[in-house]
Design a protein that fits this description.
Layout lengths: L7 H8 L3 H9 L6 H14 L5 H8 L4 E6 L5 H12 L1 H4 L2 E6 L4 H13 L4 E4 L6 H5 L5 E4 L7 E5 L1 H14 L4 E7 L8 H13 L4 E6 L5 H18 L5 E5 L2 H15 L6 E7 L2 H5 L5 E4 L2 H19 L12 E4 L2 E3 L6
Parallel strand pairs: 1-2, 1-3, 3-4, 4-5, 5-11, 6-7, 6-8, 8-9, 9-10
Antiparallel strand pairs: 10-12
Helix pairs in contact: 1-2, 1-3, 5-14, 9-10, 11-12
């Protein structure tokens, strides 16, 4: 409690460097040789220096904060992705300011302005409302996840491949008709690959199919209501037929599974189900759900690596802007569980 606060003067005296050199270590470390950086770092450890984070922000405008915009947290994919992003603090020491946009563009624009006021060093965007061209205009490092990213760096899953895997398995399950259930989203969204892959394989294999797209609302209650209507429609339209249902995420898949079990007390032979994400809800469902694994942890780590790459460049005395955005695609891992044969 009574320990003396270590000052720049103390560090300078210990290392025989000037206070200006010590200041450069904190605010512009790449201006020093690695040997001098190491010498000062050892001095800090020996003296028990505790950095004043607020003073550092005021001095150089670098907050070590990263902003995150997610569309919602009721879809398990987004909550698990956020969990993986937050866990990266141990590796990168960046703190996160998280806002849930609820798919409202004006709301998300206000959130970004507030994040900029906090001097964020970078931004991760999972929502679809703000075009990447507008995101690039903020002139800060940006990485998007699973959305349109023409003008900024982005990470996506190979959605088309995942849909081909899901559809092919349902065909092998000898389903009489295949159904794909998805929401509405921008036509340049990577998730369009899920629809296209499903449609292409059904057409190629001459399998009867139907694509059902709905506005699933902004809450789990809305999702349940819409999927209950869809379930009733499937029951009436395809009685006695073996229905292979490929849903665009595991939250939808688990909700449909619950509706089926509520009626039949089990998963009957007339239904086979495949989800998408491999969020925890899939493996923990009452009947573990076959799913297209998006490797959420790998996507999150790849996105952070891309963001840190940009943020580190911005800290240099003469940062070089990227010639063009970097885009990474992560291969899905298909996981067979009890909702398919």
């Amino acid at each position: 409690m009574n320990q003396k606060k270590v000052t720049f003067a103390d560090i300078a005296e210990y290392t025989n460097f000037s206070k200006t050199t010590i200041s450069r270590y904190f605010n512009n470390p790449d201006s020093l040789t690695l040997a001098n950086q190491e010498k000062i770092g050892q001095a800090l450890e020996h003296l028990g220096y505790q950095e004043n984070k607020l003073a550092k922000v005021l001095a150089n405008g670098k907050s070590e904060f990263v902003g995150v915009i997610v569309p919602n947290l009721y879809l398990h994919y987004y909550s698990e992705m956020l969990n993986q992003i937050l866990k990266s603090y141990q590796d990168n020491n960046y703190k996160f300011l998280v806002f849930v946009g609820d798919q409202e563009k004006e709301t998300e624009q206000k959130y970004i302005q507030e994040l900029l006021a906090y001097k964020i060093e970078g931004l991760i965007v999972l929502s679809h409302t703000i075009p990447s061209k507008e995101l690039a205009a903020y002139n800060i490092p940006v990485v998007t996840i699973e959305r349109e990213s023409e003008y900024v760096c982005g990470v996506t899953t190979d959605n088309y491949m995942g849909a081909v895997q899901a559809t092919s398995l349902l065909i092998k399950n000898n389903c009489d008709v295949l159904i794909h259930i998805n929401a509405f989203f921008p036509e340049n969204s990577p998730a369009c690959g899920r629809i296209q892959g499903f449609q292409d394989i059904c057409t190629e294999r001459k399998i009867p199919y139907e694509i059902i797209r709905k506005d699933f609302g902004s809450s789990y209650e809305d999702i349940y209501k819409q999927l209950k209507l869809i379930f009733t429609e499937l029951e009436n339209k395809y009685p006695g037929q073996k229905k292979g249902v490929f849903l665009s995420n595991d939250t939808y898949a688990n909700t449909l599974l619950n509706l089926i079990i509520q009626k039949y007390g089990r998963l009957p032979d007339t239904y086979r189900i495949v989800g998408f994400d491999n969020s925890p809800i899939a493996s923990e469902a009452i009947v573990p759900i076959t799913t297209v694994g998006q490797q959420i942890d790998k996507i999150a780590h790849t996105a952070l690596d891309l963001l840190v790459l940009q943020m580190d460049e911005m800290k240099k005395r003469r940062p070089k802007p990227m010639k063009e955005p970097i885009h990474k695609q992560v291969t899905p891992v298909f996981l067979r569980r009890d909702t398919t044969e």
